[in-house]
Amino acid sequence: MQKESKEKVGLLLGAIGVICFSLTLPATRVAVEYFGATIVGLGRTVAASILVGIILFIRKEALPSRQHFKSLLIIAFGTVLGFPLLTSFSMESLPVSHGAVEVALLPLSTAGFSIIRGGERPSLKFWLSSIIGSLAVIVYAIHLGLGSFQLADFALIAAIIILGLSYAEGGKLAKELGSWQVIAWSIMIGAPFFVLPVIFQFSPSMLHAPIEAWGGFLYLTIVSQFLAYVAWYKGMALGGIARVSQIQYLQPFLMIMFAGLFLGESITLFTMITALIVVFSVMIGKNAPVLKKEGSATEILPSSKNQSDNQPL
């Protein structure tokens, strides 16, 4: 596949992953009310491990090599432990719209760690577009009058930092191990440690939770914890970690839209205006050149200005 086509496919897969992730906080908000943070945060990994284990067995996948194990531990710490557990705790007290504006800082976290773990060097244009997008989100948060930070806010910010590292590590490892294998083996590494906490927190009364709570939990298990990561890691492997991470700026506003659709939270005109500003910054950042080291040589990934104007997000 030519480099130009790979970047297009990578950006498209990244967009699919972001859409899937955008339903994570709304689904968590519904499920955590009935199951609690531990069951929702860790139980979804235990449940997902059953599906993933079957897939790995049927495909007769070989175990990852020792050189991949360190990266898988980093990814497991973020994607199957830190982010699910911390966001579940946050959603017990925060509305989705509150969490969404903070999750908008995730692209900066991902791009920052891509410098350390992915060997990428985003250009000044890239960083300026990232700062513009982040400032728009901050102004939006202040306008909403979210008030002083509480423990749930700190938990969510910590989740964003941890997940940024996992995203960057996963995008790098996906090139060597395969996109779906990265999250699959991360789930299998983390799940055994979560079984006992889930058993201790489980209550028979949870079996009588309404269908929407079970629907949210199943979505988190199958899509948020596995399928969305397959698309996301493959997208970063093909399109570049820093560039594909720009698409995440759309995520908070998709979250707010889904929160309005499924949870009845309001969508204001100011939200839509801010969304347009953020989308514009995504388009600028997407076209910014990104330096990438290949061994001793330094390659400049081509700007989208040299590509088709119809390149998908």
UniProtKB/TrEMBL annotation:
Signal peptide: none annotated. This is Multidrug transporter. It is a multi-pass membrane protein. The lineage of its organism: Bacteria, Bacillati, Bacillota, Bacilli, Bacillales. It is found in: Endomembrane system. Belongs to the EamA transporter family. Residues 9-139, 152-284 form the EamA domain. GO terms for cellular component: membrane. The chain crosses the membrane at residues 9-28, 34-57, 69-87, 99-119, 126-143, 149-168, 180-202, 214-232, 253-284. Its main location: membrane. The keyword Transmembrane helix applies. Keywords: Membrane, Transmembrane, Transmembrane helix. InterPro entries: AA-Vitamin_Transporters, EamA_dom, EmrE-like.
